From TrEMBL:
SUPFAM superfamilies: Acetyl-CoA synthetase-like. This is AMP-binding protein. Residues 353-425 form the AMP-binding enzyme C-terminal domain. Residues 9-99, 111-301 form the AMP-dependent synthetase/ligase domain. It comes from Nonomuraea spiralis. InterPro entries: AMP-bd_C, AMP-bd_C_sf, AMP-dep_synth/lig_dom, ANL_N_sf, ATP-dep_AMP-bd_enzyme.
Length: 446
């Protein structure tokens, strides 16, 4: 990962500053640098791609930084995968080294970082909403060179205590943790629901939209929230503003990194260094978002198939849909093209429906999918998250008031908890699979 050099520099200047606080303890920058050096000496010469899956996020980051210092590309995986699945997925990605236990400390002379911008310095798994993991690899420069822009936009610096509340197998949270270390700040990596003491200490957070509200209540010292992974509602931004929290929301993808951001509530505009085009087929209102920037990933390891596509001029897309766009305008993303629902000749973008229904009191979150229909092709189907979902009559009334006829769900279901991707977004494909498979936890709303 592209921050071992930063960590060693911070250790030399501020060795007693706390670098990491996790569920089992803390490490100062001096202690972290020592652990990284010892782990790097162990990894040196053992392979070129290290698949790393450790439950303790502090130990995981030690191993990732050690791999970086040793000149090995770290590939971060999910410690909860079974040994069989882990072996199968990492072999497909081409990993020649596997780390499932904390790295041993090997004494010896300090290793000197030799980073190059073109190094393949990070790889992680992405499944999007389908649940089928593929490994994305990127160069050192594609992340480190974006750090100063994020520093300026979010105002995160060495004095901050940054909460990273999600799993580091997610690129969203992994980026948050390593950016924090590059800035010389303290990263809180609880590895799950953070304890009250960690929440009280946090001054900044990287989070997905559905968790922002609870953190505003639980972390009174917050001053900055970096929000990614899905659209942030105006209500959520206003609530953060009333709490005195500065919000930077952004749109991107694991394969694209940052594409657009909104620092003031005025809408998504290109992240520094990014060019955007929205390419629509004739007769269609929505088009695909294409980006050209220094922040793009190299691609997938092991020749895996995925949504990433390139043209001959440096432009890349993952198939997300947006409204027509011109340079200087606000980018209005409407979701992934492969999630669009074809119903009776109309195209329905699930995110448009979800944005309306998510405002209904009692809706924890919601996923909209297409269910097969013999004559319409598909019908719009809503799956509401919540232990006590609102009555169907209320949901239908809100749908009638805010949605076109084609957009209104014909079928309504409820589930106690939606399955989610590593970044915390609802896993749309898994919801569809569970519904089609007759999952007893998903009940029909009468």
């Amino acid at each position: 990962m592209p921050v071992a050099e930063h960590v060693l520099r911070h250790a030399a200047g501020s060795p007693s500053r706390v670098a990491l606080r996790g569920p089992l303890g803390s490490l100062t920058y001096g202690e972290l640098a020592g652990r990284v050096q010892g782990g790097a000496r162990y990894l040196k010469g053992r392979g070129t791609l290290a698949a790393i899956a450790l439950e303790d996020p502090v130990e995981l980051l030690v191993a990732v930084l050690a791999a970086d210092l040793a000149g090995v590309t770290p590939l971060v995986g999910d410690h909860a995968w079974s040994p069989e699945r882990w072996a199968r997925i990492t072999a497909a990605a081409g990993a020649d080294l596997r780390v499932r236990e904390p790295l041993p400390y090997v004494p010896g002379a300090p290793l000197v970082p030799e980073p190059r911008p073109g190094d393949r310095a990070w790889a992680c798994f992405t499944s999007g909403s389908t649940g089928r993991p593929r490994a994305v690899v990127r160069t050192r420069a594609s992340w480190t060179h974006s750090f100063p822009y994020l520093d300026e936009l979010a105002g995160i610096g060495a004095d901050d205590v940054v909460l990273v509340p999600g799993p580091l197998v997610s690129s969203l949270y992994a980026f948050a943790a390593v950016h924090t270390l590059a800035a010389g700040a303290t990263a809180l990596v609880p590895g799950g629901r953070p304890a009250a003491a960690l929440l009280r200490a946090a001054t900044a957070v990287h989070v997905v939209p559905h968790r922002l509200a609870e953190l505003l209540e639980q972390a009174p010292g917050l001053r900055t929230a970096v929000v990614g992974g899905a659209a942030l509602s105006r209500e959520a931004r206003d609530r953060a503003g009333r709490a005195g929290v500065r919000v930077l929301s952004y749109y991107g993808a694991t394969e694209l990194s940052f594409v657009a951001c909104d620092a003031d509530g005025g809408g998504m505009r290109p992240f520094p260094g990014v060019e955007i085009e929205v390419r629509a087929e004739p007769g269609r209102r929505l088009g695909e978002v294409w980006a050209r920037s220094p922040w793009l990933a190299d691609g997938y390891l092991g020749g895996a198939a995925g949504p990433l596509r390139r043209d001959g001029d440096g432009w890349t897309t993952v198939g997300d849909l947006a409204e027509p766009y011109r340079a200087g305008q606000v980018l209005r993303v409407r979701g992934r093209g492969d999630g669009a629902i074809q119903t009776g000749g109309a195209t329905v973008v699930p995110e448009d429906v979800e944005a309306v229904l998510r405002k209904v009191p009692g809706v924890g979150d919601i996923v909209v999918i297409g269910s097969p229909h013999p004559s319409l092709g598909s019908v719009v189907t809503a799956v509401v998250e919540g232990a006590s979902p609102p009555p169907r009559a209320l949901l239908e009334a809100v749908a009638r008031g805010g949605l076109d006829v084609a957009q209104r769900p014909r079928r309504w279901y409820a589930v106690p908890a939606l399955p989610r991707t590593g970044s915390g977004k609802p896993a749309r494909g898994l919801v569809a699979d569970r519904l089609a498979g007759g999952d007893p936890e998903i009940r029909r709303l009468a």
